[in-house]
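ASSEMBLY PREDICTION REQUEST
Request ID: AP-0331
Submitted by: J.K., bench scientist
Number of chains: two
Total residues: 828
Priority: normal
Notes: Please return the full assembly, not individual chains.
Input sequences:
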Amino acid sequence: MEVADVTKFLADTTPFDQLDAAALGQLSAHINVYYYQAQDSVKINTDRLMIVRTGIFTLYSDQQQLLTKLQSGDFYGYQQLLTGLTDSDTLICEEDGLVYWLAAEAFHQCRYQYKNIDIFFQRLFSRRLHQYREQQQASRFTLKISDVVQQRKIAIRPEQTAQEAAKLMSDSRVSSLLVEENNKLVGILTDRDLRSRVLAHALPASTQVSQIMTRQPQSIDRHAYLYEAVQQMSQHNIHHLPVTDQGVCCGMLTATDIIRSQQDHPVYLIGEIHRQLSTDGLERCSQQIAALAMTLSKQQVPAYEAGHIITTITDALTQRLIYLAQQKLGEPPCVFSWLAFGSQARMDQSLNADQDNALLLEKEPVGAVGEYFSALAEFVCQGLAQCGITLCPGNIMATNPELRLSLKGWSGRFARWIATPTPDALLKASIFFDLRVIDGSKGLFNALQEDILQRTTEAPLFLYHLAQTALQRTAPLGLFKNFILEQDGKHKKGLDLKKRGISLITDLVRVYALYAGIHEVNTRSRLQQLAAQGIIDSKDSQNLNDAFDLLAQLRWEKHQHDLQNSHDVTNLLNPAEVSGLARHQLKDSFAVINEAQSRVKQRFCREL
Amino acid sequence: MLGWLLRKNTAISEIVKRFISMPFPASSTPVDQANFLALDLELTGLNPRKDHIVSIGWVPIRGQEIVLAEAKHYLINSPVSVGQSAVYHGLHDHQLKNAHDLADILTELLTQYAGYVFVAHNSALDEQCLRYACQRCFGKAPRFRFIDTMQMEWQRLLRQGKVVKHDALKLPNCLKRHGLPDMANHHALEDAYSSALLLLSQLKLGGKTMTLSDLYLLSR
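STATUS: Completed
Returned structure:
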């Protein structure tokens, strides 16, 4: 017979939360409950699974180094249960607490019976928990017509002319019109009808709409699901569907609306951006980015894809601003490349990214050339700021004359960083080593990149210092209660997902990429290349990739959460808000990072 | 109705006899070596002479570990209606239709947990009820060894020089004070489990040198 408190706790604890009530009851019957007092040492080689119910337990290595802390919902002993090998660690109770001891047979039985539970503990053991996924929620986000249709109604009367219809379509930038008589829908007219029913038959422009429209068209209620519209369109082979609200026509749903509402929503926004004729127009476009981000997250687009999409939008804004600047300033006096650094270059931009850009010029920036590009940079950077991509507080922007250089100037700059690297200079400079061309000449950019990579591959001292810089910050050991757990045993509140996670991976992957002369700048692509070239072990590459995805995902979700609650978007995670599985996974990702850092140290920081 | 009693009479007195023949651990036994059985009864009223057992829950403690595998909860056939007491334990007459005979359950208890020190929160009532129940079923009641987590808590608080309000000794409040999980009340097994948790905490606070005699003393 089961004790409700025990089964209830198990039901809330990953991975047992997947079990049904009967299975939980059976499991609880194999549990012994023990109460530990602070200072008690836990006998750990007991061949049972320790499940922490309350209290805090600290794990030390045989060298008395703090390894981790266990809190409610954490496990110990699975290592021995899985491998049969005993441990020389010590586990000390730090805050009084209850422990559930699960008998070995029940643990194994549970693993055999439930594949997911087996995978969970295997991954927990191999520190690959970040690869563990709970079953995806079955219900995918389902769009309704009202979610995608534009709330504007463009209608014409049947007695108006084909020419008037054509003009209305052009002016409103639509491909179809509703034809209404006394506010009642009587037909629709598409641009195709104008072609096939008017021009092809040599009818005059004065032909009445009523003669060429499609009468009694299909329609759909705005509360219907989008897939119903798709069904109706395919069935009747039509691309336009009037939308009604309580029987009254309120707009038109087109095939394009549907395509746009799927993955292609950003494509639509990018198309919009490239149609804008002013910075104000671009600002209006950029106001849709937050809504787009929400849609992406509702559609469960993974974080790295979302980062890619957001970067592509920033690219589009930049390109359009450069176009608008040229409209204003005239043709550029020489060939140039607009460069992006940092997250935009790596294509993992987040919603709170600031600007990091520069100009690479064919000629020296003196005289008229200098003035032209100064004005262009001013226009573009201010424009981006107006679009919500804030000015770089470190002044890494094309508006900074230091960052508008010729190929020779840039090459010399990089040569200096590489030849005489100081850790302090590198801390600032490392951002420059992730670069990508956004607009302008690709050839010019390629020449610079070749030049840089040729230098970095043959510069052990530079790599040594770059590695040192990458190792300056470490990942925490884990999260517990309201704190993050640091190597030195101190507690801090709030986890910066970027500084203490994502950036650490980016930094150490950069070291390898520059060492191997890899052209890719995206962290995931770099990892793939590094594994393909045998520079790093493919398992390590996969682990880093997964840890990177996990952290990026958590940050993406945090940003969504901030947006939904109209908070400022930040990277700071409150440990108390991290639930079971995510907490295990975070801890695991930190372990992957710390391991990768120690490899970087061995490889690049030893022989000097 | 009483036929079974006559038929099994010899067997029944055997049960009590065997229970008695199993000695309790010596008073000098360190607490971590003693076996305990935390138990709780839900009753039709507060008078052990007249009122009946509605349900009984227990869970043993061995080597200071609560053994959930042996956690038990039984509803008991009551010769009278649960009446107003349903308000407390939530058990109504219709739920008790498929309940167990008290004698069967007492047999299980006495057979499996002879030599165990019984634990209850406010144990006096439980002890008396258990004795009357044995008397009724077997014609004879054995002597039990009970320790009382409520009395122990009272003594502990007094020693700390605290003024103890009556409410402070109720089981949920004790659990809270010890930082133990608080759970549903007036369910015989949940309450037995709670008092087991409370005992574990009290044993830890008592230090490593505590013996059974210390517990008996504190339970008075």
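REVIEWER COMMENTS: Confidence is low (pLDDT under 50) at residues 133-141 of chain A.
SIGN-OFF: pending second reviewer
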